[in-house]
């Protein structure tokens, strides 16, 4: 739960900083888009892993 709370806090802080950084907004958007292009395919492959793990453990029990 602490990790989730920390992630939510960091996400909110990032959104706040992104909204209030007027001169750097274009640079932040460019970097944000580049990171999304790299991370999204990895996330799509890994997001089903917990489901498979839960099904495997359910079958074992």
Automatic annotation (TrEMBL):
<protein>
    <submittedName>
        <fullName>Uncharacterized protein</fullName>
    </submittedName>
</protein>
<dbReference type="InterPro" id="IPR008802">
    <property type="entry name" value="REF"/>
</dbReference>
<dbReference type="Pfam" id="PF05755">
    <property type="entry name" value="REF"/>
</dbReference>
<comment type="similarity">
    <text>Belongs to the REF/SRPP family.</text>
</comment>
